[in-house]
Design goal:
Number of strands: 10
Number of helices: 14
Order of helices and strands: HHHHHHEEEEEEEEHEEHHHHHHH
Bound molecules: flavin-adenine dinucleotide
Length: about 425
């Protein structure tokens, strides 16, 4: 019987190193992010990245033969909880989205040539990448509707389509593009993935879409989301990733572990907001006491602590299941954490922001940025509603409708059955009376 919630001491020491490093060396850089710009941030990142490499923590999501650490999902999850406390820490650890997921795709489905040309430089931090799947004109929540087409033309593929929300698309050196290769195939076998150089003729980055997270128009900023036109983009046959028609299968392998990492990063953000909530509760005085003595604020603290603990255990359990039984076995658990974790993040940040009043709403604290970040979590990687529907479908597979339409727990029918089952005992009891 193993049912163990402890972390092995050797790895706990690494986590402790990460906690200090992220808090002392990376959090301060957050405040300079805007004035540094993308180039400046990359320069500031280099010495930090070297320290991470020296600790053996670089690109921990990949196997050792690819220059990674081969950590399983539980270890990665614990690591992401620390890195998630600031949006720039993953960059220092070689596992920032979307590069980390894209490197997993290349590791999983890339040919030796693709690994040589894209994966190794990506891992070394010499290239940036983007994942280009969502389209403005079709529902991203139902990717079987994708309209971007890749057509075979001799030794080439020709891609035509319109994408948006390709994160880091405007600073990427290459894009992993999902396009329909066989519109007549079964829905989940219609699309394939391609590696496309960002400077290939016909790739047009129209703009970076201003969002709630970055509301001001900007271009070429790390973390922006690009709108991209693919107009007769001619790429060699060798740009196909994996088998033709395997796009969804590969996407699944990439997205499942990515969701565990997202959820653990959200918990890192939630914990940081929670610490601010607790600190505020101890010094802000209103209506006869500090906020922490008012019951509403106590409820916020207790509920937040309980919800974060629940989300953390659920997420680590999903990670453990992936390690123990493989990615596909954890499908339901991953659906659960995606919508539950996003709600916990949102609610904890919201309470912390509320407790800070006008200060919380101002840009003098990171809470308003966390709030905007939290809102996106309910949309990307599949909106809440899609994950809830998927979980419900999987749960319902374990049930059957009662054959006669009478609920299994219907008390009059159960009482009749119990009378038959215990007829002798009932007779005896009645006789004794
Ligand atoms: C910050 C951010 C980063 C992103 N990064 C990337 C990226 O790098 N690459 C990329 O390709 N895409 C990316 N996306 C896009 C993201 O994956 C899509 O926005 C998402 O899949 C939803 O697709 P959609 O926007 O087309 O919404 P739609 O599919 O139009 O859905 C709109 C709404 O419809 C509702 N809905 C949908 N299905 C159901 C249902 N079955 N039941 C009930 N309601 C339903 C939901 O409320 C949903 O929010 C990113 C998005 C964000 C916000």
């Amino acid at each position: 019987m193993t049912w163990d919630f402890s972390t092995e001491p050797e790895f706990e020491a690494k986590l402790q190193w990460m906690r200090e490093f992220v808090r002392e060396r990376i959090w301060p850089l957050e405040t300079l992010h805007d004035e540094l710009g993308w180039d400046g941030l990359q320069r500031a990142a280099r010495p930090l990245q070297e320290e991470v490499k020296a600790q053996g923590l670089w690109a921990a999501h990949l196997d050792p033969e690819l220059g990674g650490q081969g950590f399983g999902q539980v270890k990665l999850g614990l690591m992401h909880e620390i890195l998630g406390t600031t949006p720039i820490a993953p960059l220092m650890f070689g596992n920032a989205a979307p590069d980390s997921g894209n490197s997993e795709i290349l590791a999983l489905a890339g040919t030796p040539e693709q690994k040589e040309r894209y994966l190794h430089p990506l891992l070394a931090g010499d290239l940036k990448s983007a994942f280009s799947m969502t389209e403005p004109d079709t529902a991203g929540s139902d990717p079987t509707l994708l309209s971007t087409r890749a057509q075979r033309d001799g030794d080439h593929w020709v891609i035509n389509g319109h994408k948006w929300f390709s994160s880091n698309g405007s600073i990427a050196d290459f894009l992993i593009v999902m396009a329909v290769t066989d519109p007549d195939a079964r829905p989940h076998q219609r699309a394939s993935m391609f590696v496309v150089d960002a400077d290939a003729p016909g790739v047009k980055v129209v703009r970076d879409v201003a969002t709630m997270e970055h509301p001001h128009e900007s271009f070429g900023r790390y973390g922006n989301h690009a709108e991209i036109l693919y107009e007769d983009v001619r790429i060699p046959a060798g740009a196909l990733l994996g088998a033709e028609g395997a796009g969804f299968l590969i996407a699944q392998q990439r997205l499942y572990p990515g969701r565990v990492h997202h959820c653990m990063r959200w918990l890192g953000v939630a914990r940081r907001a929670f610490d601010m909530l607790c600190e505020r509760s101890l010094y802000r005085y209103a209506h006869g006491s500090v906020l922490g003595k008012h019951q509403t604020v106590q409820n916020w603290i207790a509920n937040s602590e309980a919800e974060m603990q629940a989300a953390r255990l659920m997420t680590l359990h999903a990670a453990w299941k992936m390690d123990a039984e493989g990615v596909a076995a954890a499908r339901k658990e991953i659906g659960l954490i995606k919508f539950f974790g996003a709600k916990v993040l949102h609610d904890v940040v919201d309470r912390a922001l509320q407790a800070h009043g006008g200060l919380g709403y101002s840009t003098d604290l990171p809470l308003e940025a966390m709030y905007r970040y939290a809102r996106a979590a309910r949309i990307y990687d599949g909106p809440d509603e899609v994950h809830r529907a998927s979980v419900a479908r999987q749960v319902l597979r374990g049930y059957e409708a009662p054959p006669d339409g009478v609920p299994t727990e219907y008390i009059p029918a159960r009482r009749e059955a119990a009378r038959r089952q215990f007829a002798e005992m009932l007779d005896a009891v009645t006789a004794n009376d």
